[in-house]
UniProtKB/TrEMBL annotation:
GO cellular component: plasma membrane
Superkingdom: Bacteria
Membrane topology per record: Peripheral membrane protein
Major location (coarse): membrane
Name this polypeptide is given: Putative membrane protein insertion efficiency factor
Record family assignment: Belongs to the UPF0161 family.
Location of this chain's protein in the cell: Cell membrane
Function: Could be involved in insertion of integral membrane proteins into the membrane.
Organism: Rhizobium loti
Record-linked HAMAP family: UPF0161_YidD
Segments for region (Disordered): 1-22
Length: 124
């Protein structure tokens, strides 16, 4: 009677979550970092407003960066991304790189500033 195969009545389709859904190692630092970002999203984000100049938003970027690259590298990437989000900063689509080039070394965190700074810049 008009049923589509695989369609369950009364069940809502599953929508992807707000944050990155890909696989990531669940280390203590990553769990702590992504939990803090999620706590911000559930509490303070509504008061700050939805006026991010980038896609994904800065908090979504921070969650993915920490999940993919760890608390240290992802935290620096997130900090520099938020600093670029001001009125005179960058805008547009700014994705978290899947892998980091060898020049991004843990003891030189200022180098993470270059990630996503210019449109079309290679991160590898």
């Amino acid at each position: 009677m008009g049923d589509h195969p695989g369609h369950a009545h009364g069940v809502r389709p599953v929508r992807p979550g707000r944050n990155w859904q890909g696989p990531w190692r669940k280390t203590p630092g990553r769990i702590l970092g992504t939990s803090l970002v999620r706590l911000y999203q559930l509490t303070l984000s509504g008061f700050v407003g939805n006026n991010c100049r980038h896609l994904p938003t800065c908090s979504e970027y921070a969650h993915e960066a920490i999940a993919r690259h760890g608390l240290w590298a992802g935290g620096w990437m997130a900090l520099f991304r938020v600093s670029r989000c001001g009125p005179f900063g960058t805008h547009g689509i700014d994705r978290v790189p899947e892998t980091l080039a060898q020049r991004y070394i843990w003891f030189m965190p200022w180098r993470y500033w270059r990630i996503g700074r210019k449109s079309g810049e290679s991160n590898n």
